[in-house]
Amino acid sequence: MADAFKNVVAQNLECPVCLNSFTDPKILSCSHTYCKTCLKNLLKCHGNDQMLRCPICRAETKVPNQDVSKLPANLALKSLIDDVRDQYQFCTNCESEDKPQAVVYCQDCGTYLCITCHKTHSQWKQFISHEVLAIGEIVSGKVSVRRYHKCRKHPKEDEECFCSDCRRFACFRCVVMDHTKEGHGVIEAAVYEGNHMKSIQDLKSKTDKKRSSFQKYVDFIDEQKERVSNVQKQCTDDINKVYEESVRPLTEKKELLIGEVKGRTEEVKTELDQMKKSTQEHITHLITAADMITTRTKIPLDMDALAAHDTLCQDLQEALKQEDPDYRQPRQSSKKGKSVSFKSNVGMDELVLGKIVNTVAKNIALPAKDSMKAAVVTPGGRMAVGCHTGGVEIFSADGQLQQTVFKNVKIRGVGFLSDNRYVTLDGSNNISLYRLDYTKLNVMFKTLSDIDGGMANITVDSEDQIYVSYQKAQKIQVFSPAGGKVIREIPCFGYIPKQITSYNNYLITASWDTIRLIDKQSAVKYNLKTLGVSPYAAVSQWNTILIATVKHDVGLVSIDEYTNELKHVQNLVLDYKIGKPKREWYYLQQYRSGEIAFCTPDRLYLYPNSRYSTENNG
Fold it and tell me: Where is the B box-type domain (predicted)?
């Protein structure tokens, strides 16, 4: 009876969470007691909230300033533990009344042994493999004694069974008397322990997998953060370079610009940090909860310990239900940061460095895929995109498709006369005129056929003269809107006029790697060679020249502004990534409202009016 009493006392000196003797026991408001360290882990497991939920009864206790040490100590329990540890343990193997003090404890025999009994015990072959613990290590708390539990009702009986309905261990006699009703699932204690350990291992495996998934998410966030930081560094370096080449009065503006870059990018990095912090807290929750139920050497035996253990397992199960990370959120945030760029104003008259802008284009899919052949601004300020498969699609400045006209005409070029009549060039190089109601006029033009002239392009000048360029014939023909024969021809000596644009009293021609500004007698006034990249020109709303250079192989476009002498003014778009189309054919235009339109065979990209923003924010 004395041994049974000691087992009961020892069991009640164990923490329900760690299953070891209490260390610095603290009382919750519900009167349940736990180790201080176990409470710290529980608090960490729930995101370091100030409310701590008891694993046994689930009542909540407020933890002042998240400091578990401020909870009241269980002084009576602490004193009892110290008294038990200070008492000598006597040999339970000796039969004499005057028993000597024990020096070791055999885990397998469940017996305390004195020096003499220990020596005899160690010499028996059957006992050589037994696990023997020194009393000093037990008292110091370095090791824990594995006790054999006896039934409280029947002290001579071992608790060999487990009732899954009552969630408790029982001896065979208790099973017969108390656990035979319907619904009581009784199994061997060893079977329960085996299943329980397997469940713990499964939870540990799932936790490791989930932790790995969230760690990859954290690594991805770090990668996005680094990319945004690189953008910040590049912008800062560019600003410093321009500043050093400018005058001292620009110092204040420089600092404002750097601050703006930092503000925009730091906001994104803060968003990414919040995502990372939330994810790392979840990882900590998973690891702490898993460790608390898996890093142990014994199975919870009494009801309180089982309740605490069940609560911890349920908490971990809930944590494991959280969906895997959604990479779209950090990708969207980093996209905002990576879109920040610095636009220099070097070459302009204003004493300003430039402006921080977000180079983000609207990306509109053209209804007629891989079909774009021409683009021009309408008299009403919209964008007309011609398709060689048929039709002219009209887009507003915000990228909305408003209507499609000439659906049965295979468009190769589009223009407008001063009275707003349409001028179209079809796939056979035929010119047609249409009224505002899209009625075709009975006007004929004698152009070169597709066989004789090759691929053709069209533009209309301010005097309503119509210009048609031919790649194969390498010349430009000029027509009157009255129709008939060609008025005059402009030879293109040594180059192919791929695209033509009317500009004041000149024409802008684009060949495979050169932009030329020619007069109407074919003399080349200025030219700009683009060194291996395809250029496309348009007239800006400021009457300067916009030139888009395309690296077709890698799908990058840059747009710059030039004077009427083809001298560089500023960069507007730098290496913007576009979807690489099958055909290398592009068009550049600008809306009257300032948006720059860059058209590929498949898509329409609309860039904000960055020069206007720069001038009004300098």
Answer: 86-135, 146-189
